[in-house]
């Protein structure tokens, strides 16, 4: 399996707009494992691991997010693929 593991930080109006729930649904539809959480500074952080194509699709989705989100920027950090995440969930 050729997989990728990323940390994605999404900036803009991304809290209080169903960003986490929408990310959960999108990741599950793509077969991606990891988590999403709100950060104290108003950003949303995502750890995502999966097939290269699925990760690329998630990145494209993150650039716009759910309808009420206003994404100003996303930062992507490539991590070493491990393959040890059981599912995708919202971290609180």
Question: Can you describe what's shown?
Answer:
- It is a single chain.
- By secondary structure, this protein is of the alpha+beta class.
- The chain has a single domain, classed as Alpha-Beta Plaits (2-Layer Sandwich).
- Helices cover 25% and strands 41% of the residues.
- Helix 1 runs antiparallel to helix 2.
- It is globular.
- The termini are far apart.
What tags apply to this protein structure?
about 90 residues, alpha+beta, Alpha-Beta Plaits, five-stranded mixed beta sheet
Number of helices: 2
The stretches of 5 or more residues where confidence is low (pLDDT under 50) are: none
Whole-number tally of structural domains = 1
**Strand pairing plus helix content: what structural class?**
alpha+beta
Quote the CATH topology.
Alpha-Beta Plaits
Extended strand count? 5
Largest sheet: 5 strands, mixed
What's the rounded overall pLDDT mean? 96
Apparent shape: globular
Helix content: 25-40%
By CATH reckoning, the class would read Alpha Beta
In short:
25% of the residues lie in helices and 41% in strands. The chain is of the alpha+beta class and 92 residues long.
